[in-house]
Structure formats: structure tokens, C-alpha cells
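Sequence in, structure out. Go.
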Amino acid sequence: MTSYPVNVVAGANFTIQFEVSGGTNQGNISHTAVHYGTNRGGADINDYGGFSRVYTGRVPQKFSVELIAPESGIIYFRAHAIIDGDDIYSNEYAIRINP
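Output:
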């Protein structure tokens, strides 16, 4: 993650920026997205319940996604990328939603 807000207002648009780098071969990104939800993620990336637009490309590359804040609570999120067939996950981050 390269940029994300710590707090956002309920219902507002906000931006998360991240960079994908690395790879073991050609550096092909066949999938990258931000997975997010109001519950912490578990062992399965789909536990978050939502994900941003999916991007593809080559490493290194920077991406920017825009999401809409829910009405209250905390959004938990992490980036996921498939590079040269390998799944790569960022750490989990959180954004507090202010009414």
C-alpha cells in the first residue's frame, strides 16, 4: 500500500493506491485488486466480501482504486496480485468510517 486515508466520511468516495512488484519470471500480473469488507479477512481472500476493479499488467506497476465508504464502522482491506501464477498478498489495513 502506498496511500490510503486513515478516516473517511460515511458514503464518501476514497482512494487506495498500491504498487505491485516482484515476480519469478516475466513479471506478468494476471490479476490485482483490493479486497475489502467490514469484517477482518481470514485465510481466504474472499472472506472480505468485496473487491475493487481488477487490473492486469506487468511489474512494477502502480494502481489506484476508488471505493465508497459504508455508513459506519471500519473497512478492512488488503491488496492481492497474481504474478507469474503466484498469489501475493499485502498486509491487512483498516480505515475508520466517520458518520
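Check: The two ends are 25 Å apart (CA to CA). Residues 4 and 87 are 22 Å apart (CA to CA).
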